[in-house]
Amino acid sequence: MSIVQVAFPVLRGKRLFRIEKGRRWSIVEHLLLQAVSEKSASAEALEISSQLPRRVIVEAFVRLMRASWVEMVSTQQGTEFQATPLGRIQAKLDDLPTFPLVQQRWLGFNFDQVTGTVFRGRELRIVHQNDLGPEVIRLGASDLHAVEDMGDVFAALEGEDEAIVGIRPSPDKLVRRFAVVSVRDSQKVDGLPPRAPKALFDRICDASRAAGTPGNRLPASPAAEERGGIVGPAEGVFRQTDLIVDGPDHRAFLSKTIRNARERVLIHSTFLNEHATAFLPDFLHAAGNGVTIDIFWGQDEDRKKQASSRAEAEKLKSLIREKGRSDSITVHMFTTGSHSKIVVSDDGRGGWFAALGSCNWLGSPFDSFEVSVKIRDPAFCGRLVRHLATMSMGREAVWHQLASNITVLGRRIEAVPRTNERTVPMRILLAPDHAALALEASIKATQRLFVTSHRIGVAGKPTIILPALAAARENGISADLYFGKGTETLTGVSAGEMTLDLGSIGVKLRPVYTPRLHAKLLAWDDDALAITSQNWLSADPSDNTPLREIGIFISAPKVADQVIRLFQMQLGR
Hints:
The chain has 573 residues and is of the alpha+beta class. Strands 1, 4, 5, 6, 7, 8, 9, 10 and 11 form a nine-stranded mixed sheet that branches. Helix 1 crosses helix 4, helix 11 packs antiparallel against helix 12 (401-414) and helix 13 packs parallel to helix 14 (460-475).
């Protein structure tokens, strides 16, 4: 019998968590109580009107009846639910009263940097790298898991009927350590908890079999293998009307979103400029309704331009201060370093949604061709909020109060039940996912490949142009690639020369001057569409900055065809 020791990198930490013990009321339960406080209703009628699964409705009423807020009554239509006098009083409150036991507890944890799994403090044997002997095989850390997700930490540490609702802010960073396990006969791992993911188990076993040199540091797994191909949810609700197309529609969407909110609005715009102040009346209106607004920006590739965004942030912050609304509207003065464009808001009726795409919400004149998508699925919306929380932690990954609050909000949104609408395959795209998706498109496309990019640069050739060439040659598809302008590394003249070179191979690379092109799209055939912040023809972000770019891939009937037709209509004006 052979025994091999394998070590994998972890981030180790200990924090003081604020924990509520006892199940809290959900927004759905509150809304159902309000519904039957006005008029009794059957589960079937509520299922139709709310579009919620009947199981969710029945389970909610079971809890409400235990609290003596709802009772069952017999009517001519059958058995229905009706609020009690006490229930009608509670239904009028902004939040249903709960009486959880609040505790503060120190908890330790280890964040695995190979697969991103969080383990409790004593689940692994942890050692300093200096204490690893030369015979120990070391796995390398993955760039995708360089920073911990606070939401995953919370979920791993919570007990039954517990919810972590905050932490004591700490400037201390997590420390780098190694977890050590023993592998017997290359297939039995001692020291790894049963709940460890199969991906980590497989990596450890593979390392024990493949390592030929003691002390060898093995590379981390390829991204697709580590992540199982998908991070987060893989299916979500979607309608064709969720697409936001063209600049004026984006302006109207943002204004309406801010004014309809009643609780929280989060905006992440890569750039801030003079156009941001145009939304000041909307911000003030929302603040008057009790809304908390957080404004983030991510510009960092050019220090001079970063200074311009910071100056505009200070200007907007000063205007808000003059109006006496600094308590409700916060313009954060740090850069997140992300090129993503995200809006998250409540809908004023207890639900939440996000918008994600190409539009710099607070840095755009809204005169370009833009495409974003409204994301109403709670799992996707909550995941994006958690990404915002990680972005707000900065390069030093500091666990401050803002990051904690946004993480709690993201997990709360994720817990909202999904409606009964049609679901389609969807997935969130982080920076490293874009190149893999371009390759997937070149393999799966049977008719056409379509790309739009604000800029074209040398980095775009390996990311999208070469896969498009391969698809055109091998599958005989048409490939239409559009760009708005060149970059410092590839001028418009050079791009024009490239256009002539590619035309004979079946790939059409075209500049677009009218309308001004800012959308970042990758589509193939009729049903596959990616909407993102990444310039497909000029950017290829490093794997060690996964939140640098964020997009979403949607597979739905005619979704790609719809966007392509709208773009062609714009070209024909």
